[in-house]
Write a structure and sequence with these properties.
Mean pLDDT: 95
Number of helices: 0
Oligomer: single chain
Strand content: over 45%
Shape: globular
Order of helices and strands: EEEEEEEEEEE
Largest sheet: 7 strands, mixed
Helix content: under 10%
Length: 122
């Protein structure tokens, strides 16, 4: 499966942003999906994940209550709604697909899209 992330940009603290990850292929519904983020010089960080049917979701403590992950299998898409953004949310955001059950561990993910940059100014 090929993944294409979009929706990043420059926003102010407190603003909202919605990231989209579009997947190619007919088997999108067979993959758990995740969002990760990375700042240069630091390890890739788990943000959120969602199971194949969208009923299981997990969030990093740092984004819990502010971010919402969702998916529409008929549209081969997964979304990350980001609210109350903070400067520390600034990073490259990546979507990833995992052929097993949802997981927070990046090394479990089989496919990765390119990053979309989110910059939050104070």
């Amino acid at each position: 499966v090929q993944l294409q992330a979009s929706g990043g940009g420059l926003v102010q603290a407190g603003d909202s942003l919605r990231l989209t990850c579009a997947a190619s292929g007919r088997t999108f519904s067979q993959y758990s999906m995740g969002w990760f983020r990375q700042v240069p010089g630091r390890e890739r960080e788990f943000v959120a994940s969602i199971g194949r049917r969208g009923t299981d979701t997990y969030y990093a403590d740092s984004v819990k209550g502010r971010f919402l992950i969702s998916r529409v299998n008929s549209q081969n898409s997964v979304y990350l709604e980001m609210n109350s953004l903070k400067p520390e949310d600034t990073a490259d955001y990546f979507c990833a697909a995992h052929s097993g059950t949802t997981t927070t561990r990046p090394w479990h993910y089989n496919y990765w899209g390119q990053g979309t940059l989110v910059t939050v100014s104070s």
